[in-house]
Amino acid sequence: MAIPLVVGFDGSEASLEAVDWAAEEAVRHDVPLHLVHAAAPDHDTAGRIAAAMDRARRNAPPVRLSSEVLHEDPASALLGKGRNAFALVLGSRGLGELDGLLLGSVGLAVAARADCPVVVVRGAAEHRDGRFGTVVVGVEDGDGSGTALQFALREARVRRGRLVAVHAWSVPFGALSEPPPPSGYATEAHCRPPAQVLDDALRGRAERYPDVPVSRQTVEGPARQALLAAAADADLLVVGAGRRRGHLGLQLGLVNHAVLHHAPCPIAVVPQR
Predict the structure, then answer these.
(1) What is the pLDDT of residues 109-123, one digit of tens each?
(2) Which residues pair with 269 in a beta bridge?
(3) Of 121, 142, 167, which one is at a domain's C-terminal end?
(4) Same domain assignment for residues 48 and 147
(5) Helices marked H in the chain
(6) Are 106 and 24 within 8 A, CB to CB?
(7) Of 62, 85, 142, 174, which sees the most CB atoms within 10 A?
(8) Strand 162-170 to strand 134-138: parallel, antiparallel, or no bridges (unpaired)?
(9) Residues 111 and 189 in one domain
(10) For the chain, what is the radius of gyration of the CA atoms?
(11) Is the pLDDT confidence value at 261 over 70?
(12) Model pTM score
């Protein structure tokens, strides 16, 4: 039996947009969609769940649907479901979140600790509805982007779109005399040419998806700016996240935090395997 795509739902408009996106995503990948609503025992949830399921069926009629109400805090409920999920899908902000928050506290907690890919549905309708035909992926120097690249290539293929692989780099003042170590997406004092970083990362992976056009972008400057600029014309932005040594959860660095809060389109955080 196929593992489901899981979407968190709390009745907010952002969570309804997440349901819309997740229903279409489930159909693309031919997997079931499971709606999860975490609520206190005394809350009346039947009407909300029914409305969300009706909306999913209208937007993606072939979708295979199920639902569940869990009486625990939303982050814990979703993290539990993420242990056996194709991916977790969340809205950018839930009920009760302050208007000033760019990303809800549940979304950030889940993105930082989930065992599976987490998609935070952001952006205007044209970005959520897949009108650009483009998936953007951030590529680090080193081996940290392999799982994210695989995820992004697969997303581009099911969307019949193209992949844009972005690698940002910078050389600080004085790097020639005393080069510092690499630092993730924005790699300082490169030992290898930036174009080679992308070539090496894509080699052996892009060949498995011959029907996906791939373009490469190397940008001198901060990675967060390069990724946000590339995502301006994208349907999905994909970034990787490594495991924290000696701790549970993922290593969400400054770049991941920036794009989770500011991406103009849905963003997927993919744990490195």
Answers:
(1) 888 889 899 999 999
(2) 118, 239
(3) 121
(4) no
(5) 13-29, 46-59, 74-81, 105-113, 125-128, 146-158, 194-202, 223-230, 254-262
(6) no
(7) 85
(8) parallel
(9) no
(10) 19
(11) yes
(12) 0.87
